[in-house]
Amino acid sequence: MSERDDTETDFTAAERETLGAIAGQVVPASAGHGVPGADDALIRSDILATARRQHARVRDALAKLDALAREESEMDFTALDPVARERVAGRFREAHGPAARLLAALVVQCYYRDGRVMRSLGMADRAPFPEGFEVPQGDWSLLDPVRARPPLYRET
Amino acid sequence: MSEQPIDVLIVGAGASGAAVAWSLAETKMRIVCLEQGGFMNSSQYPSAGRDWEARGLSDYSISPNVRQLPADYPINDSASPIKVANFNAVGGGTILYAGHYPRFHPSDFKVKSLDGVADDWPIEYGDLAPFYAENDRMMGVAGLPGDPAYPPDNSERMPPLPLGRAGEVLARGFNKLGWHWWPSDTAIATEDYDGRGKCINLGACTWGCAQGAKASTDITYWPHAMRAGVELRTGCRVREITVGDDGMASGAIYYDEDGVEREVRAHVVIMACNAVGTSRILLNSTSAAFPDGLANSTGLVGRNLMFHPYALIQGVFEEELDGHHGPHKIIRSQQFYETDPERDFVRGYTMEIQRGRGPVTTALDGLHRGLIPWGAAHHDAFRTLYNRITGMVAVCEDLPEEHNRVVLDPELTDADGIPSPRIDYTLSDNSRKMLDHAVARASEVLRAAGAGEIMTESPIARGGWHLMGTARMGTDPARSVVNEWGRSHDVRNLFVVDGSVFVTSAGVNPTRTIQALALYVADQMKRRLANLFD
Lengths: 156, 534
What we know:
The structure holds 2 protein chains of 2 kinds.
Chain A: H1 13-26, H2 41-51, H3 55-73, H4 82-95, H5 97-111, H6 115-120, H7 144-147
Chain B: E1 6-11, H1 15-25, E2 31-35, H2 52-55, H3 64-67, H4 111-115, H5 125-139, H6 164-177, E3 182-183, H7 221-227, E4 231-234, E5 237-243, E6 249-255, E7 261-271, H8 274-284, E8 310-316, E9 329-333, E10 349-354, H9 359-368, H10 378-385, E11 389-396, E12 405-413, E13 419-424, H11 429-448, E14 454-457, E15 494-496, H12 511-527
Parallel strand pairs in B: 1-2, 1-7, 2-4, 7-15
Antiparallel strand pairs in B: 3-9, 5-6, 6-7, 8-11, 8-14, 9-10, 10-11, 12-13
Helix pairs in contact in B: 1-7, 1-12, 5-12, 6-11
């Protein structure tokens, strides 16, 4: 973690790399579902922008993750091979639950608003407003037995 | 220098402040309302963007401690298992509420007589009935008459919200068990209403309704009240209510949006800041005549705080349901609403169906509960939950207890240096038993409806949506803060119209009753204008 670069985000280049790497651990790409991972460049950029609101907490979480990686292999998290990354990510969740939940929350809130991901889920690739959605009325005859009930309220 | 005295000062522009302002406007008195927040811009509500769910975790969070917007004041609720939810803007909590809009039952006003607990209200359902109806006209209510859980009520409603797939599935579950359910009354327009567009199923009701179908008071009461001459000053945070030598309220000291201290003098002061905000200001309004806070000779201001302890019970289904499409509320069940001597608790609860959830909420909750892992298995696990979850919350009646209270925090302040509230609250044994019962019965109906995995949270920690009881009404000045028409026993030109005046909480969402009460108090004031202070 060295020089700061505020042109893109408030995070250092190393922090940005670590955040991208852990995003890919939370939600990796899936060829089967035809979706990118959360370490995809577009999603990563969204995550970084969103993380700025919780800058200090995110930096702290990333530092904890890197510390675990160094403890294990004297390398930053991004330098680990895939197997070691998965192992360290598991230890991170166990040892630093709140920090792991913070990063995972950041990742999924950006991942599931990516157009490619939304389309893969059958969602309309847009904001809810102004078009809205259709919801079926449903079968109102289901209410018939309830209508036939005697009063349920208590007399005063 | 302060301006000339006005006739009526209202503090707070939310559910009750808007209603009382509109009702009093016809008197042609000079009425000023001070609101610490601003007007919302519905085009910037979260549902207008793809990040709508994420914004519910930040600038549209229900917690002021998370939002930390300039209009917010921090609340120390670390000693409470239920955290306070609110919103500070013109419209107040109605900006973020779900619009579930039941009335109280007649029995809710009589819990002492019927069940030997707490106290009866000094008014009855019949006293409020005309004001429920008046409020319904102003807000616009969708629903269906004929609910056997209520006395006959043929007031006009718009058609109910669609059942959708989730409503149908759960209705079948209730029917299988022979339990009551009924389409919820909602403050959501299902037809164009009073200049507002009808609901288009945005599914983001609790982040502000960009369509304007949900009845928040910034778009219902306030346009009418302002056209009738009420002056609404935004960005104005009241520090204290001032008192004259005669022991009457004389106005308020507040900070304007530039942080400049100002004073407004008034002949009548009406508090409408919710049960936490009103207590905070009254407790902060100390003087030689009222060393423990205004209207607090009994020490009851801030006491008897009631939330509704909520339980969340959701099931995972095999078939696709509605997901995040459509308003959150569909139907409710009051099968377990009234006291049953066979149970180990008194009073009861409403089961309030929650339609579904969006992808981000599904993922977050799945991760939190260990149902969705990190890594390659994430996608399949997510898809077993997405659009396949529905369920309900149980809204449990909370009985008043004096030790549950709002006090001023000795250290925490807002941006203007005004002491913040601290919440001292514990769940009662009765509430715990009721929550357990609700979780068991709701799980039963979910299983009857075909759910596999059941997920619960009880109580919902973030669920302090309903704030009640901290300036209770009553006829006995030794046991209540305001009288049976909302006037302080101690200060004859000071009124309270928000949920603070509730004697008991019932087991339903309170906004419709809060507003009916505000209209009732306004009506009482109008009837007594010639001798209001006698």
